[in-house]
Structures are given as C-alpha cells and as structure tokens.
Amino acid sequence: MSTHTAPDAVVDETSAGEPDVAPTTHHAPVPPPADGSPHDDRWRAAARATVRWTASIGAAVIIFAAFLTTQGADPVEALTAMWNAAFGDARSTGDTLLRATPLLLAALAVAVPARAGMFNIGGEGQLVMGAVGAMAMSTALDGAVSGPLVFALLALGGAAGGALWALIPAILKVALRTNEAIVSLLLNYVATIVLTWLVFEPWKDPLSTGQAYSTELPDAERLPILWANRVHIGIVVAVLAALAVWVAFRSTRWGFRLQVLGGNPEAARRAGLRVGSLAIGAMVLGGALAGLAGMLEVSGVEGRLRPGIMVGFGYIGFLASWLARHHPLKAVLASLVLAAIAVGGNGLKISAGVSGAAVNVLMALVLLAVLGWARPNKRVGAP
Amino acid sequence: MIEAVCVGAVAGGTSILFPTLGELITERSGVINLGTEGSMLCGALAAYIIGIETGSPWLGVVAGLVAGAGLAAVHAFLVLHRGANQIATGLVVTFLGLGLTALFGQDYVGQGVVALEPVAIPGLASLPFVGPVLFDHDPLTYLSLLAVPALWWVLVGTRAGLQLRAAGERPEVLRTFGTSPRAVRYAAVIGGGGLSGLGGAQLATAFTRNWSEGMTVGRGFVAVGLVIFAAWDPRKALVGAYLFSGAIALQLQLQAQGSDISRYLLAALPYLVVIISLASLSRRRLHAAPEALNHVFEHAS
Amino acid sequence: MTTGDDELIVARGITQRFGTLVANDGVDFDVRTHEVHGLLGENGAGKSTLMKVLYGVNVPQEGTIAVQGAPLQLGSPAASRAAGIGMVFQDLRLIPAFTVQENIDLALGGRGTRGERRRLVVDAGERFGMPIDPDRAVRDLSLAERQRVEILRVLLLDAKVVILDEPTSALAPQEVDGLLAVVDQMRQAGLGVVIITHKLAETRTIADRATVLRGGKVTVGGVDPSTCTDDELIEHMVGSVPPPLPAERVPRRNETALAVSGLHVAGSDGRPAVRDATFEVRAGELVGVAGVSGNGQRELLEAVLGVRHVQEGSVHIAGVETTNRSPIAALRAGAFGVPEDLVQDAVVPGLSVLRHLALSGEAVPRRGLGIDWRRIHDHVEQRPEPKRLNLAALDRDVATLSGGNVQRVALSRMLLIDDPTLLVVAYPSRGLDIASVRATQQLLLERRAQGVAILMVSEDLDELMSLADRLVVLHDGEVAGIVDAADADRSQIGRLMLQGAAA
Fold first, then answer.
1. What are residue C38's phi and psi, to 5 degrees?
2. Which among C106, C110, C269 has the least Cβ separation from residue B177?
3. Shortest CA distance to A219 belongs to which of A287, A151, A290?
4. What 8-state DSSP symbol labels residue B268?
5. Residues on chain B touching C350 (C-beta within 8 angstroms)
6. How does pLDDT run along chain A (383 residues), one tens digit per residue?
7. Which of A238, A346, B256, C245 keeps 20 to 30 A from A358, CA to CA?
8. Which run of H or of E encompasses C80?
9. How far apart are CA C25 and CA C45, in angstroms?
C-alpha cells in the first residue's frame, strides 16, 4: 500500500519541509556538474575537516592513555614505545608498510561493495581463502613455472579464492535476499576452520612437530623485496589497486552504475541496470582484492600457511574503509594509520607489558570518534 | 547420545539465547547492534573478574549484565545521538569490547573461576531424559528459559511492548503520540546489551568456566543471524539458539566417539547451520521484519 | 473581532517563513463549533502549512492562536492535542503491522483495561457511523477504512477540532459520500471540522464556511460558499480561470503498442492485486487507468514495465512479448515510465538532476570507459521540454528537491526520450502547480499526436476524462469496464470503480 504524499503534506514532524514552489532559478547555463564548489569553500572545508580529525583522534588517544594508566603503564612511555615500534627506524617503518599492504586491499574489499550498497564484513575470511587459493595454485604448479608469470598465477589463485568466498554471500543476497553482512561475517569463522583443517591435515608440513603449518613456498614463488629487507612489492600492487578503484569509481560507466545501485537499487533496476550481476560483481571484486592480499601475505611475508595467519586483518580493513568513508585514495592513508597502531601494539607489549590486543581499543576509539564526530553534515537524530 | 546432545544443547544454548533475545529487543526497536559480540565478551570478563574479586558468582552476574549494557550504551549513543552507521558502529563496538577485555583480562587468564554451579530442581531433575536435559542446570539457564515467554508477553501484551514495536515500525507515528522513539531505542539497545552481557557471564562462569581472549568466537554475531531466523519472535529464538548449540554439542559428541567425520567439518557445522537456515528462510521472514530496520541495510556508506 | 462562545479556534496574523519563502503571510483563520470549514487553495498555497501551525508541528514566526479563548502554546503537538485539536494526515499515521486496536492504544495511552479500550473503539465507531473490527490488521484495510481508523483515533483523543488533510483525494465518489456523512455526524456532535481540499464540489456539499489561500495569503476569509460562484472561487485560488484544454483528438492508429492479456499480478503482500486484466493501447492513443487508489493500478503499471513479476497472462510491447523478461526487455521494446513513488523508486540520493536524466533507461553516450556528460548536458539544454516543465537547475542534488521538482525531473527524463513506443505514467500532475500541470498535459498530448501510446494513472477523474481516449476502470484488481472517455459519465465510472463489473 502506498502512501500519497502531496508535496505540501505533512511528512515528518521533525522537519518542516519546504513546500513546493516552482523553482525560481530558471535554467541558467550551468557548467557540467563535476563535483565543483568554489575553491575557497573547498579549502575552508578541508581545514575544518583537518581540525575535526585531529580533535577526534587526539581525544581517542587521550582516552586510550587513560586505559593504559589503569593497567599500571606510564602512558607517555607506552605511547612512545608504540610510536617507535611503528616508525622508530627503517625496520619498524617497514613493518608498518608491510602491515598496511593487506589492510589497504582489505579496505578496498569493503569499499567496492559499499559503493554498490552492500556490507562486506567477510574480508577476514576472504583474506584467508586468498592465502589458501595462492597455496593451492603453488601446489598445482609444483615448481613448473618460474619468473614473473608464477606471481601472476599465484595472484590469480589468491584472487580466485577470495572471490569465491565472497561469491557465497553475494549469490545468497541476490537470489534469496539473505543478509550479506551477516553471511559474510559468519563465513569468516568457517574460513578459519577450513584453514585449520588444511594445515593440520592435507597440507601439513611433514617436518613440523608441535606447531602445525603447511609446506613452504619455493624461493621462486617468494615476492621480491623492495626495501628494509622486508617490504615486498605488494605495497606497490595495493596502492595501484587503490588508484585503479578510484579511477573506476570516478569516471567509468561501471562506477556510475555502482553508485546508482548503492543509492537506490529500485531506481537502478527501473533504469535498466543489471542489478543482480552488478551486485555480485562488486562483491566478487571485493573478495578478489582481499584474496590478492592473502596471496601477497603468503608469498611476500609468511611463505607458508599456519593457523592464525592474518588474524584481524579483515576487520581492521573494514575499519580502514570506514575511516576513509570508502574513498579509495583516503583508504591508503587510513590503512597506514591503522597499520601503525597495530604494529605499535608490539611496542606496547614489550615496554608496558600490556596485551598487544589492547591496541584494538585505540583503533575502536579512533573509529568511534570518526563515525560519531568527524562528519558535520550527517543528519543527526533518528536513524 | 541423544540425551547428551540435548543436555549440551540446553547448557550451551543459554549463552546464545540471551544475546539472541537481547538483539531481538534491540532490533524490534529498529536498531541493529553488531556489538553483541563485544557485549558478550565484556559480560564474560566482568562476571569472571568480579566473581574472583568478591567471591560471589552472583555479583559477577550483575557485573556482566552492567558491562554488556555499558558497551551497548556506546552503540546507542553513537547511533541514536550522532547518526552513525549502525552496522559499522556495531562492529567497531565489538572491536572495542575485544580490546578492552584483552587489556583488562590479561591478568586473569588461567585463574580459577568462581563458578555459577548447577542447581538441580528437586523431583523434576530425577525424571528420565527430561530431568537432566531441562532441570539440572545453572540458575541463568532457568532464567533464560523463563525470559522467553516473559519477553513474548511483554511484546504482545504490554504498553511498553507496543511502544517498542512502534519504534521499530514507524518511529514518526510513535513520536506523534508523545513518546520519544529515541528514548525507547536507548532502552532497547542498552537492555539488549545487558542480556548479551548475561549470556557472556553464563558462558564464562557456568559453561566453559574460564576466561580467554575472544572466547565468544562469534556467538554474538550468530545471535544477530538467529534473530532473523526467528523472525523477531522470542519463541522461535529459543529454537534457533538450541539449534546452534545443538550443532556444537553434536560435534563434541561425535568427536568424543571417534566418529569418522572430520572434526573440522563438524566445527564449521554450527555456523553453516545458521547460514543455511538464514538462506532458506529469509524470503519468507523478511515480511516479519520491523519496517524501520529495513532502512538500516539500505545505506552502506 | 470578538470571540463568541462558539469560537473554538481563533488564529490571528499567522506568518510562517521557510528561509526566504513566506508560506503563510499574516493569515487569520477561525473554527467554530457545529461547523465544517473548508480550506481551499492550490498546491503550495500554504494550506497544510497553516494546519501544521495549528497542530503544533510548525512554529510560526508571528501570530497568535487562541483555543476557546485560552492562548495556545505554539509549536507543540502535545499542547495542541491537549487543547483538543486533532489532525488526520494525508499520509495516514498508522502502523500497518499493528491491528486497529493497537494503533488506537498507542495514541490513547494506558487508559483503562484492554476490554474497556476495545469497547471504546467499537462504541465510537458505531456512534459516528463507521463500524470497524478492532482486531483487523491495518495492512489488510482499504484506504477508506484506514482513514476511518485515523478519524476514530482523533475522536477518541477528545478532539474538539478535527483537521482533515485532503481526505477525499484517494477515494471513489461513493466513498467520498460516506466520508462526508461521517463529517456531518461530527458536526452534529458539536465538533469543528476543517477540510483541506481543492475540490469545489465537495466544499459546496459539506462546508458551512470556506477560506481560500493563495500564495500564503487569505484571498477569501470564512465566507458561506453558496454566496460565490465556482469561477469566483477558482479565481481566488489560482488568480485567473485556467483555459480549457484543447479538445481536438487525433485519430488513433491501428498498431498495437501495448497488449495486456489475462494478466494476474500479486501485490507486495503476496495477495492478488491484478486479476485477469486484458486491454490494449494503440499507437497515438492515451488510455487512462481509473480506480480507487490501491485497486491494482500500481501493480498493473509495474507489470507492464517489467518491474513486477507476472503470475499469469502476458504483456506485449510493440508486438514483442516482454512478460517477466526483466525491466530491460520493456525498455528495449520502447516502454518508459514515471513511477508512482518517486522517492522510493527513482531518486538516487547524492546524484544531480543531470545524473538522474541519464537514468532514463536509454543507452548513455559513451566517452572511453565513461559517460559523455557534456553531451547529455547539451542535449538537455537544447530541448524545450525541461524549460516548459520548469526543471530545476541541472547540478542540484535531486534528494534535496521538493516533491514537485522531483516530479519535474521524472517527467523531463521520460519526455526527453526520442521516439518511445509507450509511455507509462503514474499521477503525472502530482505535486505540480497549475502551470506545470498544464505543460505536462500538453506535452503528453503532443506525444500522443506523434503516435506514442500512453498509459496513464491518475487520481483525478477530471484529468483522466479530459486527456484520455479511453478509460480502463479497475476495481479490486479486475478490469471493471473499458469506456470511451468521450461518452463517459462520472457516476457510471464511479459505480464501476466501487462496485466493479457488476454495476
């Protein structure tokens, strides 16, 4: 049953809506609507945003310091240790960059479906399945291929693993209208169990004793190292992926269609867009990006599968995408910030004897500050 | 073996039933809270610590309730006062719970629990089958069983329930008649978080009887799925919760009996059960969804 | 002016501004007991704004309101309600998932026991001539029944003044009679009733006094409507009497643009909404769909456009079967439309007017992997339709536009399409001022003259009868009759709308 809302009917008591009047601004020639406001406004807005962000993050750090104090740690010392662990020297900066790589891809895995109006909370599982896919590819190749081609094939395996895992919630969503947020979330636990099974049974390294892990990748399948003995080429891949997604969002028909679908799926359907395939495509592309991150982690860092590989990366990627409001370029910065906090956790553990997982508090506080305060134009009030 | 599975389903079901009921109340008011997982963790740790520090499991239970509600209050404030996205905020709140419990719980890992002991109901507990399955549990399990009809009655038979449902259907109508939907939602989110905290408390002090980081392994998220499965009806929530815990109990039993089925496949079973039941029911159940809730999923940014 | 004993509401000098727009400009208005006061005016004249001021939803910048001599606290719906002012909104404030009783309980508070509250509802329903089963779910009720529930609820809240916001706009003529009988009961019970409307006939039938608003100002204040002629009232409403539409009809052609055969369609609630509908629209023909709203119009249009599943029967567009072949098939066959609920089905938040114009369903001009926005922009600028419809600036975010301006976007988008086969239009003039209504009607007639087939739903029977070649009358999802507009009469169509083919 539809409600008949004439323009001057009461719609909501909280908002006294503007009654309908014919627009007085008659067709003045307007420049094609690029997202263009005058430059002054843009600078002022940017300045305001910077202040808000600084204040938000500053408040989060202060609250976090208060929590640390309750655990008997000296907050200044602890925060310094965190900073040093994240950026203190080349090695720690390398650690941060290394961590930012999968986080950025995991963030893009959230941002692409989000543009199409979907929640992908399955990055965690898609990363794991990407690692599994890469390992499966490596097993299938059995050292037969080498050179750059092998990385392309491993990446393909990883992307396919992540994509397939994302395909499940996507298809359930499109075919049965099952909630993709919850299905992708629950599949994370299933992916972890699959990984555990693989490393304990079929792929178990016969030489491993106590700790279970899989056989190692051959040297030819390890990614080239760029910097500081650790930072592999994956960071370049991830940044290029962010650039590609940004360009695709901004200036392709596909990006426009995703935006329409995300803004109003019914309008998209009525405009003749193939909403089912668009939605599945967005989710699967997201999964493929997360899967690529899994491959990079196996081939660039770990060299093998083990239980607990990449724990939390998917969720932190989700946070990074929200921190960046799903903007692919801002996601680069957001991943770097969250990677620094995560890596800083190691310093916290060593210096203050506080559990490394405690940095989750800081991440959460930063996100809460940004979700709740860093967006001035957000409609405040009833959701 | 059937009896053992049923006993396990009821004993293990409490820690999933409470958050499911909590999330059900929350969603009936038109808010979704993925922070249930975090509320459970906070509830579990608070009950554990207060139990040890005071020696009273009951003070622990109260602390669990308060901790769960407190974390949910964060979600409520951000979502209801600051207009933050519900899905993202819920997940961040869970993250906050994960971090807080890791921070405050590190000294308590491996300490002895002050357990909430089972209380056999005299007479009834000695009945064959029914006795051990239903009448030989910790008090929170009985409470959860009583909570199901109680919540159902509140929803359909009381003015508070009417207002709760109205907030979840058409908040503007509720506002027209002088009740603030935001106030109703605050109460629902915080109360729901309290129930999740109770679930965590039961998990730590009565069921697994220990504390470890992230010990809820997704139970809070499963609860969110089960609310959809239950079509926002507390009676069906009971079925859903026991289906999930039954799958876990079955897995443990099969494993104990040295079944050929891979224990990994069995470990995934509870999650798969929830996913499959969501997929097979969703189309029909979507009609039962509170109207305001549908808007939550429309905006992924 | 003195306040007599029979004065319920006296409002003086009400001025309500929204930004630069003055929606009410020094308006005086009053309501007495035992009277029905008609509030007339075009869309946007400020009628609803004034009533929202009385009801406490809007806070006026200037003015005073007294209720039975006591000053009313402005801007508080609770205070207005407590003072005895009740309002029946056009978009009814009911919860579909609740029963009638639950909806009323929500408003009444915890008064009495469940049995007592139930008796209250049943008794009041009988007293005012609108018996209702309190246990039925509101989603199962017809629009007229829902309206009665709202009226009942207002009465049970001890209202002395009941404001009805365009209560008859979605009702069939006979349902209107039923409603007016209820209004008469309320008048006899001593209430003051305000009816917001733009229909003169109704005003004459029921109103003791009439007030006319134009551009936020009172042009006629509280006169007995029988003392003015229709033309006088119209002039006060719109400034000048609108010229009649051109009556010339183009001989229709023989190609069938749309053939609907044995169509069965389910509504969103799964119940049958369209049953066994069969009709054709030929090229160069405008077919109007008449019916009380909620009798399958929406589902019929959606099935034609391929956006709703067809259970049985077929849809052919320009000879191509498009039944259940997705909206894309209908678009390819040349069928384009304006949906009924634009906010729900057409508006994409954050996208500009130009971006929306690119979502017509036609292929967009390409530029590499992207879209050639400049070309679309130039095309829109060159065409006359947007100007004639007074379309908003192309870079405005559609989500921030008023309902009428959103309607202009949807109409422009459809009318910009080159050489369509079939246009499917729901409520083309909804939300528009009289000039834009005329422009829209002219544009549709021009399209018809070019040989385009048009299927149109409207809640305004006069509009349908003046534009359409033929009318398909829907009743309870069935085609109750197909009549030639030229020799149709209102009461015959009304009977078909209400009683179906049996009439």
1. -85, 130
2. C106
3. A151
4. H
5. none
6. 333 333 333 333 333 333 443 343 334 343 444 444 456 777 888 888 888 888 888 999 999 999 888 888 888 988 999 999 999 998 899 999 999 999 999 999 999 999 999 999 999 999 999 999 999 999 999 888 888 899 999 999 999 999 999 999 999 999 988 889 999 999 999 999 999 999 988 888 888 777 788 888 888 888 888 887 788 999 999 999 999 999 999 999 999 999 999 999 999 999 999 999 999 999 999 999 999 999 999 999 998 999 888 889 999 999 999 999 999 999 999 999 999 999 998 888 888 778 878 889 999 999 999 888 765 444 433 33
7. A238
8. helix C77-82
9. 11
**Is the distance from CB of C451 to CB of C253 less than 8 angstroms?**
yes
CA distance B221 to B196: 11
**Contact C95/B159, CB-based, under 8 Å?**
no
Closest C-alpha among C219, C205, C284, C178 to residue C28: C219
Q: Is there a contact between A322 and B283 if contact means CB atoms under 8 Å apart?
A: no
Nearest to A33 among C21, C337, C352 (CB): C352
Q: Give the predicted TM-score (pTM) of the model.
A: 0.86
Question: Could you tell me which residues are beta bridge partners of residue C37?
Answer: C194, C209
Listed in sequence order, the residues at least 6 apart from C20 whose beta carbon sits closer than 8 Å to its beta carbon are none
HSE (CB half, 13 Å, CA atoms) of A258? 28
Q: Do B298 and A117 touch (CB under 8 A)?
A: yes
Find chain B residues with C-beta within 8 A of C81's C-beta: 178
Cα angle C171, C177, C180 (rounded to 5 degrees) comes to 100
DSSP per-residue string spanning A38-81: -HHHHHHHHHHHHHHHHHHHHHHHHHHHHHHHHTT--HHHHHHH
Chain B CB within 8 Å of residue A87 CB: no
Chain A segment 167-186 residues within 8 A of B by beta carbon are: 172, 176-179, 181-183, 185-186
Which residue among B174, B176, B291 sits closest to C77, beta carbon to beta carbon?
B176
User: What separation in angstroms does the CA of C56 have from each of A7, A16, C46, C53?
Assistant: 19, 11, 15, 5
Nearest to B173 among C94, C109, C110 (CB): C94
Name chain B contacts of A373, Cβ cutoff 8 Å: 82
Tokens representing C367 are 């530029």
C338 - beta bridge partners? Answer: C425
- Nearest CB to A382 within list B93, B171, B224: B171
Determine the angle formed by the axes of helices B2-28 and B219-229, rounding to 10 degrees.
Answer: 80
Q: Provide, as residue numbers in chain C, all residues whose Cβ is less than 8 Å from the Cβ of B159.
A: 105, 109-110
Q: Compute the distance between CA of residue C331 and CA of residue C353 in angstroms, rounded to an integer.
A: 21
Contacts of A114 in chain B (CB under 8 A): 300-301
CA distance, residue B119 to nearest chain C CA (Å)? 39
CA R_g for chain A: 23
**Which tokens belong to A48?**
């305001």
User: Residue with structure tokens 């085609």?
Assistant: C479
Residue of A nearest to B267 (CA): A193
Cα–Cα distance for residue pair C260/C302, rounded to 1 Å:
12
Chains that touch C (3 or more CB pairs under 8 A): A, B
Half-sphere exposure of A46 (CA within 13 A, CB side): 7
Q: Where are the alpha helices (DSSP H) in A71-147?
A: 75-87, 90-115, 123-141
B35: closest chain A residue by CA = A364
Give CA–CA dist C58/B5, Å, rounded. 62
Interface test with C, best of B155, B176, B287 (most C CBs within 10 A): B176
Tell if the CB–CB gap between B85 and A322 is shorter than 8 Å. Answer: yes
Q: Measure A64 CA to nearest chain B CA, in Å.
A: 10
Report the alpha-carbon distance of residue B41 to residue A165 in Å, rounded: 27
